[in-house]
């Protein structure tokens, strides 16, 4: 007989009848994705319970309320939906300041620390680029690691001339600085491209390995010492600004409490666990997990510090003091790193 | 005399719209050919030199979108949009005209609303400047030819509407066509 | 749950009403979607979404192969491929009883391997094969029925535009879908050939023997189709074996077909111009339906319809295979009314969530692939079923002296073997899935 495992993940309109504030949360991944099951749904439940049932959050996965993922940020700004979870990098140019956290050797190895650091910098430095929306929390994944089809990488030179799929705008700069050829392509096409070496590798977190079955395609998995990575990707869960303003103070307080430091640490833990799970699967499948030594990693740092300089120069054009932002971000991350 | 003169002026205006729509569709077609060539060059570069065109991805996305919008006015004028003619195939000229009138009115309403809304989309892209990942190409620039296409679609819908109102549905109805 | 289903029902009735008075399907979807969204959620949401919705839908990377495959088919139509294919097929098969019709099917399959659309395949091959079938005094209903049915191979054999759209909706890998379509496509060709063999045995006058040709002609005509084989091998083989992704593959295909046509001096600026204009018509129409379907989806999602429908099906107590069969039958009936692309865009967003909840013992991804191929076949049947069968209309327009009813009668045997093929693929998912497993 038919099972109906995913039904809990689908929004039910009827169930919302007795809640006072019903909010639609729209995002781009599927209803069974770890992002929904492990992060968005538990967060929605915390808020609902914290509000004593006054708030009901209906989750709409897979862009089911229409549009393409880059449109999410407009949808929440315009009030088409109440809340979105989205990737800042889907709309390059909109979040130039928050981008500091994606740079190599800014985010290092601890997603919880970077989440907390983003919250620290938010009020003073980042808020200006979230006009019309209320970010409930900003977060990152565990960080970009190097996946190579069959090239064990120990030095930056090992990547010279290789075709690597880019994760973000600045990820392309990282690859250029390493002498690799950056290639853009949608994530679903990646397995096929890797299998016949249309690309030689990709900069992505381990967390994606099981979803794309990369363990069957990738031999060499490379990261820095102590899980250090080459930058990361920033995400946001944000509410429409007017909707936020219309909520009574006590409901706002619930959202702020349930999205506070404890939750940011929890989110860091969730993404860390997903990431650990990914590399575990790869290792079980016979992949080589290469952890670079401090000395080797220093070589990468040397090559990649100019990327930070390139970013500082670029954002100068938008009258942003990139240098100060980098310093502030690094200091905040260091403060929160255990 | 005056009426006939005005009428032929309208006909000439309609002919001009048809001509522009066709030329505009051809421009879109050539843009599609350009996208094809970028892909071919990128693939050749990838195979021969291990060096694909870095941003071929976004060239395809923007290029195809602009081309498709350029096709829409021509589609409207050549009745390329799929219809089901189960109940209407045997209808007389009068009813044929009525059906085309209704369809053209919906097309006109749609194109006017889309032109209006996408104009605000352009303003949005100016306020919150969004660019492509590799080339940093501002998306509002892509909206300029797109808005021109939509303006032409408004005119094209007007042409089919007026032709239907004049009882000349055959000027907008062609043989049934499918997507297959 | 009832109120959600009622919303869905009202939407569907309104949609069919508009389609029945000859409102283009794309605009009917837009109108129902827009009005429905406004009724459920007010005008502000829709108006905001329209600022970027159309651009977003038109710039989906995976869909970029659609206009490219359309252009490739349109150039192939003008490049003389069809004539070469038919000549070679006829040299091999023509001498048999019913052989000229068999040659038409084989040539349709060959043309389908470089063309992503049924209608283009039917009309192109019709121009070549119909006069020959008439010359050998084939019965009008077998002649027109064969070409109308053969056209369906244009979409069953990759590349296939409808399959690309399906893949985009359910987030399947286009490459995997193309690989999965290959064996079922070959089975279709085989079944069609057998159908003709049986048909001419039962009605001997319907398909006389053609001429036996010389060995030189067999060799020469076979060599002449080598370019088609090379193009198919590079484009589809390149995709299958993963040498490149679908978008660059489609681009290479356009390029090669154009080179072939230019080389044979059959394609010049005039032909390119008309190929581009036809591409404009077909692509514009496809993308407009896509936009209409997106608006309809927004309305239905806001109304909670897909979830309610999925719940209703899941709680119906029917076994999964029965639900699958029910959905396929619904698609066949809808095929009387709509074209295949509109159907895929209209119903897959509702049917897929239902199927995804069912356990066929295959796993999530294989189920997606398997259902896609089955859905593809049944929506394509709509092309040859009355009252609206686009392929039949097109072929009938080329042979004015044959009544439409005769052509419909001529396609009926093919329709029934297609049903047989659906049952076969339904009973043995392995037929569809073994090649993707092997190459995936
Ligand atoms: Na095909
Ligand atoms: Na039909």
TrEMBL record, chain B:
Localization annotation: Cell inner membrane; Cell membrane
Record GO terms (molecular function): transmembrane transporter activity
Residues passing through the membrane, by range: 21-47, 59-77, 98-120, 140-162
Main location: membrane
Record's GO cellular component terms: plasma membrane
Keywords recorded for this protein, A-Z: Cell inner membrane, Cell membrane, Membrane, Transmembrane, Transmembrane helix, Transport
Keyword Amino-acid biosynthesis listed: no
Function: Part of the tripartite ATP-independent periplasmic (TRAP) transport system.
Name this polypeptide is given: TRAP transporter small permease protein
Family per similarity comment: Belongs to the TRAP transporter small permease family.
Domain of life: Bacteria
Membrane topology: Multi-pass membrane protein
Source organism phylogeny: Bacteria, Pseudomonadati, Pseudomonadota, Alphaproteobacteria, Rhodospirillales
Residues of the Tripartite ATP-independent periplasmic transporters DctQ component domain: 48-166
Signal sequence, start to end: none
Pfam families named in the record: DctQ
Subunit and interaction comment: The complex comprises the extracytoplasmic solute receptor protein and the two transmembrane proteins.
TrEMBL record, chain C:
Location relative to the cell: Cell inner membrane
UniProt GO cellular component terms: plasma membrane
Transmembrane spans: 5-21, 27-48, 60-81, 101-122, 142-169, 175-202, 223-243, 249-267, 279-300, 320-337, 344-363, 369-394, 414-435
Keywords for this protein: Cell inner membrane, Cell membrane, Membrane, Transmembrane, Transmembrane helix, Transport
A Pfam family: DctM
TRAP C4-dicarboxylate transport system permease DctM subunit domain ranges (all copies): 12-431
Membrane topology, as annotated: Multi-pass membrane protein
GO molecular function terms listed in the Swiss-Prot or TrEMBL record: transmembrane transporter activity
PANTHER family: C4-DICARBOXYLATE TRAP TRANSPORTER LARGE PERMEASE PROTEIN DCTM, SIALIC ACID TRAP TRANSPORTER PERMEASE PROTEIN SIAT-RELATED
Quaternary structure annotation from Swiss-Prot or TrEMBL: The complex comprises the extracytoplasmic solute receptor protein and the two transmembrane proteins.
Similarity section: Belongs to the TRAP transporter large permease family.
Function: Part of the tripartite ATP-independent periplasmic (TRAP) transport system.
Protein name: TRAP transporter large permease protein
């Amino acid at each position: 007989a038919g099972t109906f495992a995913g039904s809990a993940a689908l929004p039910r309109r009827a169930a919302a009848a007795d809640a006072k504030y019903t909010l639609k949360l729209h995002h781009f991944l599927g209803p069974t994705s770890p992002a929904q099951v492990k992060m968005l749904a538990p967060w929605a439940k915390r808020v609902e319970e914290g509000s004593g049932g006054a708030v009901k959050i209906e989750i709409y996965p897979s862009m089911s309320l229409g549009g393409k993922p880059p449109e999410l940020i407009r949808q929440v700004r315009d009030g088409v939906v109440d809340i979105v979870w989205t990737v800042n990098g889907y709309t390059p140019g909109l979040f130039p300041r928050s981008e500091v956290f994606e740079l190599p050797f800014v985010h290092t190895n601890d997603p919880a620390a970077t989440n907390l650091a983003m919250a620290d910098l938010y009020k003073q430095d980042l808020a200006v680029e979230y006009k019309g929306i209320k970010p409930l929390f900003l977060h990152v994944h565990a960080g970009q690691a190097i996946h190579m089809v069959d090239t064990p990488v120990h030095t930056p030179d090992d990547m010279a001339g290789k075709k690597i799929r880019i994760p973000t705008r600045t990820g392309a700069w990282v690859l250029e600085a390493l002498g690799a050829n950056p290639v853009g392509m949608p994530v679903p096409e990646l397995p096929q491209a890797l299998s016949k070496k249309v690309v030689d590798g990709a900069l992505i977190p381990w967390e994606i390995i099981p979803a794309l079955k990369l363990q069957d395609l990738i031999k060499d998995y490379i990261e820095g010492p102590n899980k250090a990575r080459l930058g990361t990707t920033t995400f946001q869960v944000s509410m429409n600004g007017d909707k936020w303003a219309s909520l009574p103070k006590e409901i706002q307080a619930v959202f702020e409490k349930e999205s506070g430091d404890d939750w940011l640490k929890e989110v860091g833990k969730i993404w860390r666990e997903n990431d650990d799970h990914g590399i575990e699967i790869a290792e079980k499948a016979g992949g080589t997990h290469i952890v670079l030594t401090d000395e080797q990693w220093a070589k990468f740092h040397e090559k990649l510090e100019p990327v930070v300089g390139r970013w500082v120069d670029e954002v100068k054009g938008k009258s942003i003091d990139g240098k100060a932002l980098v310093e502030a971000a690094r200091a905040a991350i260091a403060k929160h790193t255990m | 005399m005056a009426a006939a003169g005005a009428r032929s002026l309208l006909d000439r205006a309609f002919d001009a719209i048809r001509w522009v729509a066709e030329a505009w569709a051809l421009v879109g077609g050539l843009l599609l050919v350009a996208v094809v060539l970028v892909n071919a060059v990128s693939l050749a570069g990838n195979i021969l030199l291990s060096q694909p065109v870095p941003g071929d991805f976004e060239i395809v996305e923007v290029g195809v979108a602009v081309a498709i919008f350029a096709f829409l006015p021509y589609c409207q004028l050549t009745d390329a949009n799929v219809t089901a003619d189960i109940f209407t195939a045997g209808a007389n000229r009068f009813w044929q005209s009525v059906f085309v009138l209704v369809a053209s009115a919906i097309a006109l309403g749609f194109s006017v609303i889309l032109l209006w809304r996408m104009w605000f989309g352009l303003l949005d892209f100016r306020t919150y400047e969004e660019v492509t990942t590799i080339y940093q190409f501002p998306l509002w620039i892509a909206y300029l030819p797109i808005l021109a296409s939509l303006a032409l679609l408004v005119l094209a819908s007007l042409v089919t509407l007026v032709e239907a109102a004049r009882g000349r549905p055959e000027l907008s109805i062609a043989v049934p066509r499918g997507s297959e | 749950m009832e109120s959600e289903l009622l919303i869905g029902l009202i939407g569907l009735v309104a949609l069919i009403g508009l389609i029945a008075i000859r409102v283009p399907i794309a605009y009917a979807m837009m109108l129902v979607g827009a009005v429905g969204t406004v009724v459920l959620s007010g005008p502000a949401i829709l108006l905001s979404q329209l600022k970027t919705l159309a651009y977003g839908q038109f710039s989906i990377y995976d869909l970029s192969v659609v206009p490219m495959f359309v252009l490739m088919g349109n150039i192939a139509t003008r490049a003389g491929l069809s004539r070469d294919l038919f000549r070679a097929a006829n040299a091999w098969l023509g001498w048999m009883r019913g052989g000229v019709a068999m040659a038409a099917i084989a040539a349709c399959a060959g043309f389908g391997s470089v063309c992503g659309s049924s209608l283009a395949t039917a009309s192109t091959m019709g121009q070549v094969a119909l006069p020959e079938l008439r010359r050998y005094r084939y019965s009008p209903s077998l002649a027109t029925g064969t070409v109308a049915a053969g056209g369906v191979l244009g979409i069953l054999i990759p590349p296939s535009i409808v399959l690309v759209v399906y893949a985009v909706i359910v987030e399947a890998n286009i490459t995997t879908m193309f690989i999965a379509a290959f064996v079922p496509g070959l089975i279709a060709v085989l079944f069609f050939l057998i159908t003709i063999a049986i048909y001419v045995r039962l009605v001997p006058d319907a398909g006389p023997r053609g001429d036996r040709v010389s060995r030189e002609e067999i060799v020469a005509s076979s060599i002449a189709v080598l370019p088609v084989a090379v193009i198919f091998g590079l484009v589809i083989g390149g995709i299958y074996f993963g040498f490149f992704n679908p978008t660059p593959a489609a681009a290479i295909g356009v390029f090669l077909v154009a080179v072939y046509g230019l080389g044979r001096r059959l394609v010049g600026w005039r032909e390119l111009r008309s190929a581009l204009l036809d591409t404009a018509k077909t692509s514009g129409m496809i993308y407009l339906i896509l936009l209409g379907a997106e608006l309809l989806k927004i309305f239905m999602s806001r109304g909670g319809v897909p979830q309610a429908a999925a719940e209703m099906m899941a709680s119906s107590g029917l076994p999964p295979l029965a639900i699958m069969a029910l959905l396929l039958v619904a698609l066949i009936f809808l095929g009387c009314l709509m074209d295949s692309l509109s159907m895929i865009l209209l119903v897959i967003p509702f049917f897929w969530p239902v199927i995804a909840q069912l356990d066929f013992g295959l796993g999530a991804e294989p189920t997606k692939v398997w259902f896609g191929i089955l859905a593809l076949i049944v929506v394509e049947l709509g092309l040859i079923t009355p009252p609206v069968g686009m392929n039949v209309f097109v072929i009938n327009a080329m042979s004015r002296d044959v009544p439409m009813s005769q052509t419909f009668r001529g396609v009926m045997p093919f329709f029934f073997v297609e049903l047989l093929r659906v049952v076969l693929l339904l009973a043995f998912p392995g037929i569809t899935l073994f090649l993707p497993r092997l190459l995936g």
